[in-house]
Amino acid sequence: MFLSTHGLTGIRYYCKNTSTKVRISEALSGASLGADVTVQGWVRSVRSQKENLFFHVNDGSSLQSLQVIASSNLNSTLPTYGSAVEVRGILKKSPHPKQPFELEAKEIEIVGECNPVEHGFVQIHTPVITSNDCEGAGELFQVESTCPQDSEDHNFFSVPAYLTVSGQLHLEVISGAFSRVYTFGPTFRAENSQSRRHLAEFYMVEAEMSFTQSVEDLTKVMEDMFRSVTELVLTQCAEDVDLFHKHVTPGHRENVEAMLKKKFTIISYSDAIDILKRSSEDFVFPTDWGCDLQTEHEKYLVKHCGNLPVFVTDYPYDLKPFYARDNQDHPQHTAAAVDLLVPGVGELCGGSLREERLDLLMARLEAAGLKDTYSWYLDLRRFGSVPHGGFGMGFERYLQCLLGIDNIKDVIPFPRFSHSCLL
Amino acid sequence: MFLSTHGLTGIRYYCKNTSTKVRISEALSGASLGADVTVQGWVRSVRSQKENLFFHVNDGSSLQSLQVIASSNLNSTLPTYGSAVEVRGILKKSPHPKQPFELEAKEIEIVGECNPVEHGFVQIHTPVITSNDCEGAGELFQVESTCPQDSEDHNFFSVPAYLTVSGQLHLEVISGAFSRVYTFGPTFRAENSQSRRHLAEFYMVEAEMSFTQSVEDLTKVMEDMFRSVTELVLTQCAEDVDLFHKHVTPGHRENVEAMLKKKFTIISYSDAIDILKRSSEDFVFPTDWGCDLQTEHEKYLVKHCGNLPVFVTDYPYDLKPFYARDNQDHPQHTAAAVDLLVPGVGELCGGSLREERLDLLMARLEAAGLKDTYSWYLDLRRFGSVPHGGFGMGFERYLQCLLGIDNIKDVIPFPRFSHSCLL
Fold this sequence. Notes:
eight-stranded mixed sheet, 18 strands, disordered N terminus
């Protein structure tokens, strides 16, 4: 049975107990004020207070969630964060200025439980000072004591030491014990860049997962993280986000909502090259197979995919660092690596399966003259090696993407970049 | 009415509804199995699951907490973390091997609400790379790009840059907007030490509070933090802690319990010097007023105070950095600074009121030849200056203290110290 309601496009029908099933966007419109309605969705926050349990339900019809108030007298199960629920109740005006309407629950059904421990990643502090050079790039900061060292030793650490460019190799060590690990900490690049998306000191979320066999497994975790973090920030830090979306970057809220609406596109690097080659755009940098994607290419690809996030997978083997897993394909020869490109920012995340096969890894390190330096890393493949992979996300770039901030220096309190280290 | 129960020292008396009031330690002993009992205490964890809300109550009679199961059918208010509660219920055997007994709640009364937002400290990422030298010590790491710089500029940042030794000065900036702020991140000392309590890279929790007027206000927050974090870790990470307390450092659990039992002692530096002078101990370092406290002195003071944590306040003005607040006392001349010494570790925390008076701060910086370097810091006293203070706690030393681990290199996955930067 359909009910047509003035000004509402949603579909309504009667469900058990003469309660009308409505979408969250409808419930928030207030058209059903005072009615007995049923909403379905996922729990986005839970807060217990005095005699009531408060939680927010979101079903994707609106970025805003509906607050549900469940009295402790209620003869229903209590939902946990992330669980799928069906809630029947009465739509009331909210006394709180932040939300016009709220649902006073009469019945709560847990449709799908959510026990977040199952996805449990263990947080690890990876070191800032390291004797490795993970990316093999030259953009490193060296670290040395300002005090003169012993005559024999020229270095405080006896070896040259650098600021970390990534915690990945250390995470790989620890993932051999905890399976799923992550780090959230500062990383450094001595890039002589004044660009609006580079810092000399920035934060990265990096994750590493044992028993991971495909790039799709990585994209799934990356996309899940982007979605769940974004939804969490939008609900838990609504005031802070609104400050930007209302006063600094009006209109950006719609961009964020659009990003969350559809599943992210996945294209291969080879597809990306085809798209670039077929375009009428006048690129400065070459678009031949084997060339690295430049900012102008990233921008075009994001635009081509509807101004939405897009994963690019399976990059040329020669473009990726020694640890990226060889796809052993022909004739193109790619590695199982993936980048996530997002509107306004370009590359937000980069990840790969790691080469877990000792012979292939050893051959590549040997060719690069790094076999001795990374003997400890080779040992990880000698003892209990498993297929594994991981990724890193630039935290300040994520904030740019979420808030619509053009310059990365505006999303960190004390930005460090070439020729600038204020305070 | 008193009931004497074999093997129990606690006092019992009947309360409303013929429920017997028992302490948590008694409840956990199982002597009241099947009885209708009432416990009083503070909520140490809350977890909602399916049809039940689980929470742990602790009343200080035991370090272990009692698990309470509250059905969602229960006509009672739901407690939040930290609130004081009185719970009536039936003591049952627990199906879970981790706890022998649990309380099935029949009635819950919130005695004192707890809204943790009120103590809200805002987390800030203070930078790792800085052009300051906060402590004025020489034990710094300098940072420089490995790539050659422009001919004009010898430094990547145009100025010499260092790894931070403390986020304090940056926190002071931000505390001028958020009042109460903290940072948790890596800090660095180029100390040429192989000691069991020094690292070249370690983590600090640092807090800064505007509108703070006395050292006692600081000790209160420091002690509260130590207690609440310890209780949280002991309850939320019980398995991890038990691994150490059972297999690595047996007997240490009692030391931790003893630390939590009594309020921490507070003595002044001058009192500390008196205690050292009166002791029969044969100290290597001098114990004259004005001398810094050495490890041997810290050890003795902790022992003297019952092998329990002890605050030492009001250090000689000349021993403390430029930002420490002048007590303007005579004839001793002290600064409003405080250290927390703990068993086995020695100095765990250090803090001070900060000199908020422009004229005094300027005079001191001028005398040290640092007036120009810290002109931005002086500006903080020119515009909206408030009495404020803060402290830092060494995170790895805290872990040593909690777990009873002798060597600091055993509580961090990748220790960095002089002549060692493995992996």
